[in-house]
Structure formats: C-alpha cells, structure tokens
Amino acid sequence: MNAIPAQTGQAVNVLDEHQAKQLLKQYGIPVVQESVAPGPDQAVRAAERFGYPVVLKGLGTALQHKTEKGLVHLHLYDAAAVRRAAEGITENAGGDLEGLLVQPQITGQRELMAGLVRDPQFGPVVLFGLGGTLTEAIGDMAMRLAPLSSFDIRRMTEEIHAQKLLGAFRGERPVDAEQLQRVLAGLSRLALEHPEVAEIDINPLRVTPRGKLVAVDALVVIGPQTSRPQLTPPVPPKEIGALFYPGSIAFVGASRQLGKWGNLLVSNTISGGYKGKLYLVNPKGGRIAGRDAYRSLLEIDDPVDLAVVTVPAAKVLDLIPQCQAKGIRYMVLITSGFSETGSEGKELEADLIAAAHQAGILILGPNTMGIANPHLSLYATGATVTPMPGNSVVVAQSGNMGSQLLMFAEQQGIGIRGFSGSGNEAMITMSDYIEGFEVDDQTRTVLIYVEGFKDGRRFFESARRVSRQKPIVLLKGGQTKAGQKAAASHSGAMSSDTRVFQALCRQAGIVEVYRPMDLLDLAAAFDSLPLPRGPRVAIMTFGGGWGVVTADLCQRQGLLLPDLDTDIRRRIDTLLPPFWSHANPVDLVGDFNPAISFQILEMLARWQGCDAVIHLGIVGREPLIERLSQANLAADPDFPPRMAKQVLELVAAFEEQFLKRSVELMVETGKPIMGVSLRADSRYKTVANVPGATYKGVFYPTPERAVHALAKMVSYWRFLEETRTPAL
Q: What does the radius of gyration of the chain's CA atoms come to, in whole angstroms?
C-alpha cells in the first residue's frame, strides 16, 4: 500500500496525521494504534474499543501544530470527556476539520523526536534528538546525510547531550537500541525511495516505561520535485595532477606594466625559479621581462602545456581555437568578469566552457589567483610568496585567503604540496581537487577554504572516501543560521545550513576548523607528527601556571590527563626538588638542567599511560637569554661579553639536541610530541626540520593552539578507528 496520495501540480502538500503514520509504518517505524472517527459518537465507540484513557485530536491536512491550536486533548477517562473534547476540537478547527483521531493514551516520561529534511546542496538529512514541545528551544539534535550506515546511526545517538534519557530513567527501562536503529534506518530508506517527501517530523517519539518507542504524532510534507541543476562533469584525477606539472607555460596577456596581473604572474613565476620553458604573449609583441613577446599563441613554434590567461573576459573565447590548434590542454584563467558578475557574465562563462569542452581544454577558474607547485618551483600566483615544498595541498575559493595562507606557510616553515585558487570552478570543482589529491602519493593533508559547492552531494561522497586515507582540514566561510525559512516542521526549522554542514563534516571525517590559522596549525601537525592513538596526554612544563592552563584546555577539548604511575613519580623524585608537582602536568619548577629535560621527556614519551606529549617553555629561550645578557652588559661594566655568547651557544645547542631527540622518540614510540615555544620574535617558526628524519618538530606560540591541534588529531584518529570496524 502506498500511503502517499497522488500529487497534482507543484504546490507543497501535507499528509494528515493518520496518512503520515501509515507511511511511516511501512518503513518499520512503530506508530500508535489509532482510529479515524467522523464525529463524536464514532469517537466514543473507538475509545471504548481501545479502553480508557485515550487521546483525541483534530484531523486534517491543514491542521498542523495542533497543540498550539487546542486540537489535542489528553487523558480522557470516559465517554463524557471524549464528547466534550470533540466539541472543543470542532469549534477550534472550524472548516479545516476532516475528522477526529482517537488513540490510546501512551504513558512514559521521555519524549524523543526523529525527522527528515532535504538540504538544497547535500540532499536528504535524517535528524534525531530530544522531543516534545520545547524541541526547537532546547536544540539537542544530531543529524546525518542519508543513506545511514549503522556507524552513522550509533554516532547520532551518542551525540545528543541528553544521554541519560536513553538509559534507565526514573524506574523506566533503557530505550530499545535496536528499535531506535530501525526508526532511523527506516527514515533513511524512506528518504531514498520517496524523493517527493520534503520533510518528516516525528514528535514526540515517546518512550514507554518498558523502553519501547511509539510515534504518537507525525507530520509528512510532500514538496514539488525540483529539477536538479546541470552538474559539472567530473575531471579525471590524473588531469588534476598533469595541471600542476606543466613543462612549458605561455602567459597570454603578459604585460610590462608594474602591478598588472600580466606582470605579477610573469615576475613571480620567473623569480620563483620555475625551470620549465616560458613564453610571453602580448598582441603588441616587443620585449617583456627581458624576453621576446609573441603576438599570439600560434607564433610559438614549441609545444605548450599550460596557458595562463589574463586578457579581458570578452577576448578569452577567441583563445580556445588557438589553444586547440597548439595542442594546449590546460588553461589557468585569471580573468574575472564571468559568472561572479551576474547574468551576462554567466552566459559568457557558459559559452566559454562549452567551447573548451568541445576543444578538449581543461580550464582552472575563471576568476582565480593562480596555481603553485613548490616541488616544481612553480609560483604562478598574484602574491609574491614561495613556500617550501611539502605535503600539504591548499585549495581556496578566496584569492585573499589563499595569499594569506601561503604567506603564513612560508613564514612558519610549513611545506606546501600544491596550491590552487579555485575561482568560479566552472570546470574544476572542489570535488575534482579532492579526487585528484586522493591519488597523489605526495599529498598527506588537504587544506580547503570553501564558501559554496557546485555539487554538494558529490563533495560529501568524495570527502568521505578520501578522508579515510588522508586528513581533509576545512574552513567554511559564509555559514548562516538562517536555515530553511519555508520549513513546515520542527525538523526543518532546526536544520540550519551550519548544522547540516557540521553534521556532514562529522559523517565524512572532515576536520572542520573555524579560523584561517587553524588550517596551517593542523597542516603542521598532520604533516609533521605521528597520529595519536588515543586521547591521553602527558604534559611537561617549565612553569606551573602554564601547565595548569594547558590541563584545563585539554579537559575542555575532550583530552584526558592520566595520573602518573608510581614508578615514574619515583624516578622523577630523584631528579627534581621535593616540591615538584608529583602529578601530570610535570612541573620542572624552573630547573635549567638540560639533562633533566631530556630524561623526563623520555620517561613521558615511553610511558604506556599516555598517547601524546606536550611540552611548554622548554624551547625558544634564546630571545630571553639575549635580553638578559644585554641587561647584564648594561648594568655591569665587568660582565664579560664572551660569557653571554657562550650561554647563547649552549642554549642553541640544547634546543637543537632536544629537537633531535624529540623526533627520535616519535619514531621509536609512534606518539606525537609537540611543544609551546617561548620564542615570539621574527625568527619563530611552527615547524623545525631535522635533516633525514621521518618527523619534524612542531612548536606552537600558545598552549591553546597546541591543545586544539592535538584534539583535532585525536578526533580524526577516532574517525579512522571507527570506520575501520568491519561491521560498519
């Protein structure tokens, strides 16, 4: 039986409550017994069949949110009460009343809710959380994109804050976990089999004293099926790789004028050390950057792999036949003036992309800030930055954000695998980049700044697969709390853009961050350190206050600080004064003895009771020593300058050895060791290399950044562990 009536036209329809429950019942969702009565007499007879007490409701497709309208009467214990309730419902509902709905009164102190919405970017989303009349006000909700796996369902039930309500509660049994799983799985299946269902709201999903679930109210909204927009065809992953490795580049629109894009890109590419062949194209010819300029691409005799284009938007389409004739298969289109400008720009972009497809040309952009591959010494970007080669790839939909990230990476010694300003993503979307980096062995971490998606569903599916192999760290701009304004249900009202996207990230294993610098902090951690295998942290600090603050930060971020075992405490007793902390964090009480720092670091790293080590204030002392020496020289004319130099040399040697030993211990133990540096001057770097080593030293400027990075690594480790489980 199909409980969804045939829909006419394109209007939004709502099933009445009885129809909604009949549909849910087909998908294994337990619903309350009920009877539809045309009037008071039939309602009384139905109540007597069920046995008192009963519930009486008004029924009708126009009667939604019935409680607020006085259309729900509970705890009716006799025929007279049923008749009075029927009269009140008839008066309040007016012409919208289509019947009376009689149900047995279901007891139980707990009310949950489950639902379904369709996100315009990502598709069907299943919701679960705390139910009742205060659902929206409390907002205790978890959600996942359908289809749901058993792992997704388990995580949903674990995420709600009111966990106690799922266990034994005030003499009532725990919620039947298998039945709850069937409810959420049923909604997931319904979402896929009935794309015409726009929203579902089961509220309350009452828990009986025996722990069984019963849907006592339900709303199903049938919406017009909108045609899906034409999606950008996928780009083969090998094409993404080829784009980043051109053997020759033609700059079309090269310019002598300082500050123009045609000048910036040429200058940055040459000064960056690109070893491939360069050809400059300008219709006036002449000399540019000490090279002869060609008047068109067709004048170039040699083969060209990549065209970097900065000519005005109206002239770009004319380049397609030239590129095709020259066999140029890739274009980085810097030029703006396309879809980002309005309807005319969209038409121009559509014509360009159609011509490019026909000619077999792949376009990055338009409206991009460029491309970089440090492994090829290629820096064809508008910003004069040259980060070192590394394993973290960056894709940004914002040129300014991309420039800032590359600049910070260069300053902090964070290696970059490649960079792309994705621009309008007319042909190459964020999903294409992810799939391209998936097959690139040199890419360890994917860093993304995104504001929107051309195909949100494909992005989710690609990211969920790739994140099982390498971390995806993502910052999303433009998140909004506006939600779906046309939502007819609690479910729709609670599924804001932000909440759906955050749920997507959790489900796909994406490491979501909220500040630009978090992207690079996580790049440093994932690229330089082994992944922790648990949440237990040992802290070693040069000052007590720093240790206390870091311990608080760890607890807030879900990390654990285990107590030191007896053996470690006894061994540290032989090294430190009696007044040391005797606990984790281990306070070195200002002891400058290098040997002690080495010994305690090794004890903690090898301790089976922890999964990671954070040390604070052990490195980065050089600026303080320099200032102290200067103060002594100014205060004491007899202070020997050579002594100041010797002290600095000793400090530098200690820090170099400490870094080397930390890296060795990471190799030996498989645990991440990260530091918080005292250094805050221009020579500070987040990442310190040890030549030939597997790992690197990572030093953050503040405890909160160190703890945040470690907590995100632990969260990613948990995702990997849970998704490796064969049963899932």
A: 32
**H or E element that contains 35:** strand 35-37
Q: Which residues lie below 8 Å from residue 335, measured CB to CB, with a gap of 6+?
A: 253, 309, 310, 311, 312, 313, 316, 365, 366, 367
Residue 36's CB is within 10 A of a number of other CB atoms, namely 17
Q: 27 - beta bridge partners?
A: none
One-letter amino acid identity for 572? I
Angle between helices 177-193 and 150-159 (to 10 degrees): 120
CA–chain centroid gap for 462, Å, is: 13
- Confidence label for 12 from pLDDT (cuts 50, 70 and 90): low
**Tokens in use for 267?**
């200058």
- Domains of the chain, start order: 33-104 (3.30.1490.20), 110-222 (3.30.470.20), 237-526 (3.40.50.261), 529-721 (3.40.50.261)
- What Å distances lie between residue 549 and 539, 555, 569, 706, CA to CA? 11, 10, 22, 12
d(CA 54, CA 68): 19
Q: Is the pLDDT of residue 241 over 70?
A: yes
Q: List 419's β-bridge partners, or say none.
A: 372, 394
HEC assignment per residue over 289-358: CCEEEECCHHHCCCCCCEEEECCCHHHHCCHHHHHHHHCCCEEEECCCCCHHHCHHHHHHHHHHHHHHHH
In Å, what is the CA distance from 315 to each residue of 251, 312, 337, 644, 716?
A: 14, 6, 11, 65, 47
Query: Per residue in 272-286, pLDDT tens?
Result: 999 999 999 999 999
Q: Find the Cα–Cα–Cα–Cα dihedral 617, 622, 623, 628, rounded to 10°.
A: 100
pLDDT confidence tier of residue 260, bands split at 50, 70 and 90: very high
Give the pLDDT band (50/70/90) at residue 483.
Answer: very low
Cβ–Cβ under 8 Å, residues 586 and 572 = yes
